[in-house]
Amino acid sequence: MYKELVSVIKGKKTISDNELKPFSSLSGEEKGKLSDHALLSYIKSGDREAFSILVKRYEKKILNILYLQLGNIPDLEDLVQEVFIKAFKNINSFRRESKFSTWLYRIAINIAYDYRRKNKEVYSLDNSINEDDDNTFESIIAGDTKDPLDIVEKEDVKSKVRRLIMELPKEYQEVLILREYEGLSYEEIARILNCPVGTVESRLFRARKELKERLLKEDGNYAM
After folding, report:
1. Backbone angles phi, psi at 59, to 5 degrees
2. pLDDT tier at 108 (50, 70, 90 boundaries)?
3. Could you name the CATH architecture of 134-224?
4. pTM for this prediction
């Protein structure tokens, strides 16, 4: 059983409900190292603590996705909670052939879309949720022409990019956030957005191009 548990922790094996070792018998370190699919097996057997581990594992990423799409809105934390409540209620509909994160990001994208549709207000992106994050913007605005990071200070670029992403069409926002901030593959993004990989690639190309042009036009002295 120990070898099987190690395989589960490393994500190499999916366990069935009748193979589950009691969750309470696992150490905190073992629980934290369980794969998403292993935790889902515990959740489906009725263990709510396993779901709390998934929440801790993904809450920052979900917060970031919602923040980048909606801004620093008063309802942001409530929407994060709504994502996980919806995930918990629909956990039995999750199909294990895909990643749990892919399924969860799709829920977040849909909730952000619904919120935007119901609330037309534009909120400020002046304040970052996590000022010491490791996200950079070089990859978003990378291209063959002059890099705006050579022109303006990094923090100024961050502020502008946050605001300009909000002004892009919805389909451009989504691919930029999922690719540049979450580091997802084209295939994963295609599954989340339910579109062909080629569509993801073309949207990302156009989104990067438009974002870069808008960023450069922010400073008339360096407009293209």
Report:
1. -65, -35
2. very high
3. Orthogonal Bundle (1.10)
4. 0.68
